[in-house]
Amino acid sequence: MTFALHVYRVLTSALSPFLGFVLSARVKQGKEDFSRRNERMARHLPVLRNNGALVWLHGASVGESRLLLELGNRLLDERPDLMLLFTSQTQTSARLMGPMLPDNAVYTMAPIDTPAAARRFIRHWKPSLCIFGEGEVWPNLILEAEKAGAKRALVNARMTEKSAQGWQRFHQTFRALVGRFDAVLAADEDTARRLANLMGKPVVCSGNLKSALPPPSANDIELRRMHEGFKGLRKCYLAASTHDGEEALFLDAMKAAPDAALIIAPRHPERGPVVEDLLRARNIPFARRSRGDVPNMNTRVLLADTMGEMGIWFRLADAVYLGGGHTPDVGGHNPLEPIRLGKPVVSSPDVFNFADMMEDLSERGLIRLLKTPKAIGRALVTMAPPSSSSLDLLEYEADAPMQVTLEAIRPLLPEKGLLE
């Protein structure tokens, strides 16, 4: 164990006696769910619903959870004898995952990364394989999983140059954690290069797993209701997965379409009150979805601050402004879902999390990366939908990263019928 890892374990161990107080404080701040405190401390955890070998899939938030859910479903298609455990760090992802779980799966919030909580978690679940999504490197959980003999994989790994420089000072620690993983797959070539430099060995670039995610589904009855009651004969423009400041930018951009219906779907629905204050300050007629407001033809903006309905908003929209590119340190969001539904998409050039994908899509004319509200508004109003041939090619290519990932994961699975 490196000196840095030893220090980390000592410091997080010192936190353990105060974990209850820390969680209570976070509950009061709205950062934790009171009903899930035991999960965060790895106490009173649920029991397995069958005796199959367990694969644990962990991602930080909504995006990572969705791609791991798709990966988990693919694994179950091949190996229905497996049991899956999903964990994540945020309340938003917890609410999303519950109703989407396959039959052979359970979900809990991830434990806080103290040695004691990590040990309880691993001893309770006894995973045969641990799959971490994108950048979830939690030392105590990884070390406890290794001690228990579990295989470990990092999939869809993403690392910025800034993060790589930070880890470079602790490259021995990084090698002690991730360097001993059984499989490491990078989402892009830049990440593969950075990881290879840190670990001192080649890293496979699978491509971004999010390309394999199917577009979100939509309730046909609700979609028709929104068409008839809200959109009508108007054009409709959607601001999807927005962060602080991006709603105001979108509203400025849509001065280019003063008669259009607008939808704002913040990335984090709990920001609904903040967006509502913005709309009130601008004296814009709006309806708030989470409150049960019913929009009509006189409603300028539908504030879609709910979970699980993005499929409706994508299909209702004539064009989409995708958030995450105008907010520092976010790095953009996955553009493939609206594009695959045939929608013109605009985002910002600051999309480092999807740099390779955005460059490729931009070269194909499937997305435009623009900075100013005026340019964004003009593009949303004038862009043509993707051609059918472009969409056919995109569909053909989309599943390749998933196939590469599955190929790397299969040898790590326990033999069928073998319990660890």
Q: Let me know the largest β-sheet.
A: 7 strands, parallel
- Rg (C-alpha, Å): 22 Å
Widest sheet, order of strands: 3-2-1-4-5-6-7
- Mean pLDDT over the residues: 93
- What structural category characterises the helix and strand content? alpha/beta
Tell me, briefly, the overall form. Answer: globular
Helix content: 40-55%
The overall number of domains is 2
Number of helices, where a helix is a run of at least 4 consecutive DSSP H or I residues: 19
Q: Class of the largest domain, according to the CATH hierarchy?
A: Alpha Beta
Q: Look at the structure and name the CATH superfamily of the largest domain.
A: 3-Deoxy-D-manno-octulosonic-acid transferase, N-terminal domain
- The N- to C-terminal Cα distance equals 26 Å
pLDDT < 50 runs, ≥5 residues:
none
What portion of the residues fall into strands of 2 or more residues?
Answer: 15-25%
